[in-house]
Give the backbone structure.
Amino acid sequence: MKTEWFKMRMSERRLNKLRLYAAMKDTTMTHVIEDLIDSLKIPENNKNEGTPLPR
């Protein structure tokens, strides 16, 4: 798996909330964000619709 860097801006309040949550779960902030992304539901490509979803 190739690893890429991801940079984002967020409020200090949200950053502190993320840090606290990760500490409470004894995991990294990266792992929390990856789990959130993995939990997103992407609808299946409907053949009746025009544009396929990117992979």
